[in-house]
Write a structure and sequence with these properties.
The protein is of the alpha/beta class. It has 13 helices and nine strands.
Length: 384
């Protein structure tokens, strides 16, 4: 009892209370100081960890909620030019064809558009006549585009100043007479359609040359009311004789057409070709060698869908007079002024419903050995 009384008395003692007040703040200060030291150490360790493992990467996960509207000038320019300069992409054919068939419903363009011709080169490998084409294109920038479909394993290096620089598209193997050849042609069309300014599409090979200067060809194509693709009814064994009755009802024998694979199409018909899922399965399944699908698929399909829009003739000259499965090849010894007179003169065809003496704009097949004499004659004979 005495001890308890003494404790109560100590509590009441002013001296005891003063000691207690002085001791408690000192302990709190020590605790606070230890806490601050720990915080500093933790902060130091954290900053060094972020620096070592990529602080920017961690912060970059948070993206700003604002994105430029496609209607803004910079965003719109990017939208209309994104596929004109960089041709390489990772789209599958299915994705590419779907993207390429977008059609604006408003006909008036909200930007200054110069219609261009897409020159599409279908080749296994090199372009031996490239320097002749360089001369043809010179001075006409902004009115043409170039696309090259070669074997996937082949890449030809062009200088950065060349019109062919960076113009290869993602490609796949294409075999003559098989559906893979038509696939390659559709792939070229689809990639060219991604550039909104491309209005006309010309299929060429590495052995093709232009027969006139750029201005004449541009005016001829741009002013034509029709696209140029051969499509005729051949009743013989190499025409109707290749028809398979399993292609009906999509394709009847009376609709079966034959023509050269080298064509020129306007934008509307190019989209028709790329978007086709009606006729393609029939040709893929029933036009097998020796049907040579590349001679029948496009002519037949476009005759059924848009007969009034095609001229039923090709604008690419070939010489079949020597016979055989392939046309004649022209080498160094063939390139003379008389040779070109034979191609260019004494010809008559229909152009916009009237007779015209200009029937062929291009010609094939020219061997690599023909390049030098072509370069020598082109200023006086070809006009460039």
């Amino acid at each position: 009892m005495q001890t308890r009384v003494n404790s109560l008395e100590e509590v009441k003692d002013p001296t005891f209370i003063s000691k207690t007040i002085r001791v408690l703040p000192l302990k709190l200060l020590l605790i606070l100081l230890m806490f601050l030291v720990l915080c500093a150490v933790f902060t130091f360790i954290s900053l060094n960890t972020f620096k070592s493992f990529g602080f920017n990467t961690m912060v970059g996960v948070v993206k700003p909620s604002y994105e430029p509207c496609i209607g803004e000038k910079s965003g719109f320019n990017q939208f209309i030019t994104q596929f004109s300069s960089n041709l390489m992409h990772k789209m599958s054919d299915e994705e590419l064809f779907w993207r390429a068939t977008f059609v604006p419903r408003i006909k008036k363009y909200p930007f200054e558009r110069t219609p261009k011709i897409a020159f599409m080169f279908l080749t296994k490998g090199p372009l031996p006549l490239a320097s002749l084409w360089e001369r043809f294109f010179k001075g006409h920038e902004g009115r043409f585009s170039v696309y090259i479909h070669s074997l996937p394993t082949y890449t030809q290096e062009f200088p950065s100043s060349s019109v062919f620089y960076g113009r290869h598209i993602p490609s796949k193997p294409a075999e003559w007479g098989k559906m893979s050849m038509c696939d390659a042609e559709k792939r070229l069309l689809a990639n060219a359609l991604l550039d909104i300014s491309n209005e006309w599409f010309i299929l060429l090979s590495e052995s093709c040359i232009p027969l006139y200067n750029f201005s004449i060809i541009y005016n001829y194509i741009s002013r034509s009311k029709n696209s140029f693709i051969g499509a005729f009814d051949d009743p013989g064994p190499y025409g109707r004789g290749r028809y398979n009755e399993n292609m009906a009802p999509e394709v009847n024998i009376t609709q079966w057409r034959k023509g050269s694979q080298w064509f020129e199409l306007d934008r509307r018909l190019a989209i028709n070709v790329v978007e086709d899922t009606t006729f393609y399965p029939k040709f893929e399944a029933f036009c097998k060698p020796h049907c040579y699908v590349d001679e029948h698929y496009f002519p037949t399909m476009l005759t059924i869908r848009a007969a009034d829009l095609i001229a039923n003739r090709s604008i690419t000259y070939v010489d079949w007079s020597r016979g055989g499965a392939h046309p004649a090849t022209f080498g160094k010894g063939d390139i003379t002024e008389e040779f070109f007179k034979k191609i260019l003169e004494n010809k008559t065809c229909k152009y916009n419903g009237r007779n015209s003496s200009i029937c062929f704009l291009f010609a094939r097949k020219f061997a690599p050995s023909s390049l030098q004499p072509l370069l020598e004659l082109s200023p006086s004979v070809l006009g460039f």
